[in-house]
Amino acid sequence: MILSVAVLVSHLAGAPPLSSYQPEPAELQRARRLMLSRPGECVALTHFFLQRKEAKPASLFNSRQELDKLEQAKRYRTRGQTFTAWQLQALCQANDGQMLTADASINKAIALARQQRQPDALVTALLLKTKLALATDHTAQAQSLLDEAKSVSLPAGDGLIGDLQLLQATVLMHRHRYDEARQLYEQVRLQALQQDDMLRQSWANFLLGDYYLQLQQDELALSHFLETLDVLGDRRQFYVKALAAKKAAAIYAALGQNDKALQFANQSTTEFEQLGNSPLLISSLINLGRVTRAGDDANLALVYFFNALDLVKIQGDAELMAQLYLELGQSYSNLGSYKEARHYLDLARSGFEHAGDLPRQADTLVQLGKMHLAQQEYGVALLRLERARAIAEQLDDVLRLMESHRLLARLFEQSGNMAAALTHQKALHAYFKRATTVNRLLTQSLVQDNEQQLQQERELSELGRKSEKLQQDRERFALLAAGLSLLSPLLLYGLLRNHIRSRRLWQKNQELQQSLLIEPLTGLPNWRELMQRLPQEMARQQQRSEQWYLNEEQARPFDDKIYYLLLQVPFMSNLRERVGLAAAIDIQQQLGEYLRGRIHPRSRLYDLRDGQFIYAIPQKEVAELEPILTALERMFAEFPCHFELDRRIFTGIIGHPFLPKAPNALDDLRLGDVLYLALAGARELASNTGESAWVELVAVDCQQAAFFTGDIRSCCIQGIMKGLVKVNSSHKKQQIDWQALQRGLPSEDSRGAV
């Protein structure tokens, strides 16, 4: 996580407060006010002030001196004013993007503070230099500067200690030590709350929100951003309030709550407007316009975009102006004002072509193509979209390629060229498969982050880094041994000790890898173990199926399958809500030990979480399936537990190879889809009967592998309807409405539009 330079360098005052008898000069007061809004003027003011001569302590004046001496004081600068000027200049240069000159300015402040032995000024300057290091992603340098700042002695109640802790937490975030960073943020927040320090409390809340945003915990992040706004209330802290409102608006927009997103986007724009920083205000207006347009109010969005355009014209940023032309053109296109839309989109395309911005040039061509397509100008739309597709192919941008192929497919479909439309639909589907995270047998709920496993993975990564370092040390020792024979006993001792440490680390590494394959609560193999073993197991079965087929033994049925049974145990799904966390953990541990002692010795049982298990057993071990299913039902029914549990189980069953004469027709993903389809049928039987239910899907011997090309679930349902797939079940299979299950599946068009 790298915060913007403005965030990193703006929430410290810049210098310790000066003495009460010596007010801050007007130049520095104005520079401090312009630090965020007009950093260039701030740099000029501090530079002008530093041209003054430095006054010696003996020549300081107080308010009782005559007027001519007070006028003379305006031509000098004191030691404290010098510290303030250098630090302010560094802040303003950083906010203006002049990172090298900002580093030089803060170095002068550090050197001056060391020379004059001023601990407060030294710590403040070191903290500012730490922020500059973080802004340029120099984490090691930032930690070194913080360590130096910690070594400086400060009074117990000094506010700089809280700023130092905030920066330390930010450094920990950069180093991916999230738990320590969160604890430090919480500590600063509580201290600020006790000391009634609203500003530091608000910054701690804001940074905590950013912390949870990095961990993709949007609800927690949103609560901290809202708390930041609540703490500040009507206080004139425009910058942090604007940032918090902007983050809250983005989260609400992602959650689909457009009304609240619009409310906070408006607040962010208002705060940035009061701050007076034109670039930040422009960015906020663009964000507000997009949120407003997403809420189907393109007319109001145009107002925001034109306001931003006026500011950009004053600023003279051609690239940003082209972006606004694109937003205006898209808004006019949404309103159906195609003449104005074409005008602004042509301006945007010219701007992007001049700047060499290929991605946004492709976006502009897509918008032009959509506009011409809406007007049924198919020839011009085809030219625009083909050009957009060519640029996207040049950039290898999958998302833009998907959008261009989607629009091209719609264009050819509307113009009656179905063959070309089908070609683009296939291309869209191919890019969609490339861009989408493939469902590897498990739903997203089965791979949600688990705190224990995340910690194990972090430890595994840390052990890997330590192991690499030890390997480098061993190689260094081996090279030195040839030239330093007199030190051979010491080197041998070092090598032996290094070998022992490496061995221990290797053993611990192996233990952690094994623990990642076990479900922590039940102790059963988990989905990682299944996904490691399943492709290898399927490859062996496919090879045996091919040998059976090539030996022309079709007269003897293929009897070397592996049966996969997908079990759903209802009482495991809501166990924590019904009995509580502690009791649920205890029941799951007891269930894991119980199941390990009850399953067939040649079978395997995998815990997929959320009450789903996969039971795999070879066909040669099963004379008939019904006794196995009865044993599984009895196994869960006889599980000893003093809580009242729903003892039913729903089971989907298939055998692999599913098509013995064409074993390569199903890979592990398509096999999983068929298995979940069988489970869906079992669940429908159970909903009708109120009892445990099972459904087995078996492909008949005369099946054609080509029939199962495409979406495997739809193909299986069609195969069931046409008699190519046989259905065995615990109850009357006529109670399963396969057509209803097929209507619940996404169509090709709906999947392409995702």
UniProtKB/TrEMBL annotation:
One Pfam family cited in the UniProt record for this chain: TPR_12
Highest taxon of the lineage: Bacteria
InterPro entries assigned to the protein according to its UniProt record, in alphabetical order: Rev_trsase/Diguanyl_cyclase (IPR043128), TPR-like_helical_dom_sf (IPR011990), TPR_rpt (IPR019734)
Leader sequence segment: none
Protein name listed in UniProt: Tetratricopeptide repeat protein
Organism this protein belongs to: Oceanimonas smirnovii
